[in-house]
Design brief:
Strand content: 15-25%
CATH class: Alpha Beta
Oligomer: single chain
Helix content: 40-55%
Structural class: alpha+beta
CATH architecture: 2-Layer Sandwich
């Protein structure tokens, strides 16, 4: 659809099969997903991400100020407003995965795992302690840490053009990338992680979109419930969902 309409989006439930009891994961959650046609640079997906977060925060604080003030008084959290105002007033910070890892190690004495990537605790360290609660775009990830369809960097084949948006109190709010449109790169990447060829066979339609040509695209997904966590200062994602589902709770 992005090839014809250029900008498309969905807002729908997503189902997760992980057996987790974490405070930021549910078995069912809502996600905003956007895809942009003719995306050649990371800035083309970073700007819409930043605008989306800021527009929602602005509408809550100033379009529905009475309701938000009532909630803030009820929970007695005066820090929420400072954090949200900081999000509105400042440009989001952009740094590479390598720069983020170096900053965590030198400023917080926290070493990033080469196989697991940046942990949730390190995400919060990075945005809250090391960046004054200003959201951070972490870009240019090692391709081994990201899905096969993310575009390989033209400067370094070990890097892919991926991004995670980190925000205070939550950690990762959005994840996205430029999509790999080079069929040879896509095929090589797939074979490296699945030599049996089952992945290529099961996703033949996806590969055909690249095999026969198509415009470059990029996009991202935002966890809507995590956005509510950010705005409301909720520590547990279950507190922003009317009927939260997690493993062994609230059967389908």
């Amino acid at each position: 659809m992005a090839s014809g309409l250029e900008k498309v989006w969905t807002f729908s439930p997503v189902f997760r099969s992980e057996n987790t009891q974490s405070t930021r994961h549910l078995s069912e959650f809502y996600m905003v997903e956007a895809e942009i046609g003719f995306a050649y640079e990371m800035k083309q997906i970073l700007d819409p991400m930043e605008c989306l977060v800021k527009s929602v925060v602005n509408n809550i604080l100033y379009g529905n100020s009475a309701e938000w003030a009532f909630y803030a008084d009820m929970v007695g959290n005066n820090e929420m407003r400072k954090i949200l105002d900081s999000i509105l007033k400042n440009n989001f910070t952009t740094m590479t995965y390598k720069e983020a890892s170096h900053l965590l190690q030198t400023k917080a004495n926290s070493v990033v795992s080469p196989t697991q990537g940046i942990s949730r605790e390190q995400e919060l360290l990075l945005v809250e302690k090391l960046n004054n609660n200003i959201p951070v775009f972490v870009i240019d990830w090692p391709k081994e840490l990201k899905p096969f369809y993310m575009r390989q960097s033209t400067e370094d084949s070990s890097i892919c053009s991926a991004v995670d948006l980190l925000v205070p109190g939550v950690g990762e709010l959005c994840g996205g990338s430029l999509r790999e449109d080079n069929f040879s790169n896509l095929l090589d990447r797939t074979k490296s992680i699945d030599p049996s060829g089952q992945l290529e066979q099961s996703l033949g339609w996806y590969f055909d979109l690249r095999r026969f040509g198509g415009n470059p695209t990029g996009g991202f997904g935002m966890g809507f419930d995590r956005l509510l966590q950010l705005i409301l200062g909720a520590k547990n994602i279950r507190d922003v969902v009317p009927f939260p589902r997690w493993p062994h709770n609230c059967s389908m």
